[in-house]
Design a protein that fits this description.
The chain is mainly alpha-helical. It contains eight helices and no strands.
Length: 171
């Protein structure tokens, strides 16, 4: 298994797929998450290969736009195509499936250090000016008004309720 070649091919695939994507889950978000995750990982003695793959793939076939089976099958097929070991694929898919905040409804606690690192990097990218810009970008993508004082903040009981309100597109 040639890790450098796998990263190079997956990087190219993700960049082609997400470059110019209009929901704030684009190539540049992915690149920032990857760089930050790798920076954190070097201080934590974590598996850099798993972290880089998971960071690159975390928003490809995002759950907000694709059914879970589409995401899992497409990512598994991609990683197998590049001859990634099955145990690596399993770990990467676990991270990708459980990374999202999902409107505060995600109760899964990442069980491995690599997943915790990628999740932290992804959430850090949701802060500050970039995070605010991404929020407005995503709102525009799903046809939300920027501001309406009549709409009150809402807490969701579960992911089904959250998806219904957000009018999330499932392909």
């Amino acid at each position: 298994m040639n890790k450098k070649l796998i990263i190079k091919k997956v990087n190219s695939y993700v960049k082609d797929k997400l470059y110019g994507e209009g929901s704030g889950h684009d190539w540049w978000h992915t690149d920032r998450v990857r760089k930050l995750a790798l920076k954190i990982a070097k201080k934590e003695n974590a598996d850099l290969f798993i972290i880089e793959l998971a960071a690159l793939l975390h928003d490809v076939y995002d759950w907000k736009f694709y059914k879970k089976t589409v995401r899992k099958n497409a990512l598994e097929k991609l990683l197998k195509k590049y001859k990634t070991k099955d145990e690596i694929i399993t770990q990467v898919l676990y991270i990708v499936e459980n990374i999202s905040y999902k409107g505060g409804t995600n109760k899964v606690k990442m069980k491995n250090l690599e997943g915790q690192i990628v999740q932290d990097a992804d959430r850090l990218d949701a802060l500050g000016a970039i995070g605010i810009a991404r929020t407005f970008t995503y709102g525009g993508k799903i046809s939300r008004q920027m501001y309406d004082p009549k709409i009150k903040a809402k807490k969701y009981k579960n992911l089904t309720e959250y998806k219904k309100y957000k009018k999330i597109i499932q392909l």
